Amino acid sequence: LKPLIIKLYRMLSSPTSNVLDLPEIDTLYTGRPVVIDFMTEQELTETYNMIQEAAKHGEGYGIDEFNSEKEFREEIRGSDCFVIKCAESGTILAGVIVAVSKFYRGHGSIADPFVIVKRTERKQGLGEFAMRTSIDFAKRLGYMGMYVDTFSNNTAIIKIIEKIGGFVQVGCLPVGGKLQNGNTVGSVIFYTNLSDVNNNVVNET
């Protein structure tokens, strides 16, 4: 009952989430069935822990990007948070957070996704599946475009972006974050349109 109450609270507190009828059932390319749903509070904590674990291994997140879960929650306040779970066990496989981009100096028109896959669940195409989910949901939520800001050493997500297509590299930052070993790493910034000049959603990727 508690997860249902939390789910209803999130739907009521995030108006954009009301356009999504979740949960949805889908299948990975491996044939594994998965469930996509709104995140519960506990799953948001799990997602934070997954991000911290990735940061320790220099995988897409800076070691000092979020000093605490409280800071992480403040950063994504107002975002739409989704979870990809195993359809059989209900365990979390990946997290997808569609946040409002800070690169756009306007009100909530451009998305900026947080995508994280549990380290023990990799090599199943979950990264690509999660990224495609973030794009699909951003379109359905009415965003006009999407920025993706990733570390230059994150070859996995860069390959996924190139495979999906439609993204253009629009910039880079010489200092994007700090790794576990204390070294800094640059960031690469990609952009894709999600709507045409008349603000109509473009074709699905």
TrEMBL record:
Q: Which Pfam families match?
A: Acetyltransf_1
InterPro entries with a match to the protein in the record: Acyl_CoA_acyltransferase, GNAT_dom
The domain of life for this entry's organism is Eukaryota
* Domain N-acetyltransferase stretches: 34-195
Q: Which GO terms describe its molecular function?
A: acyltransferase activity, transferring groups other than amino-acyl groups
Q: What is this protein called?
A: N-acetyltransferase domain-containing protein
Source organism per UniProt: Mytilus galloprovincialis
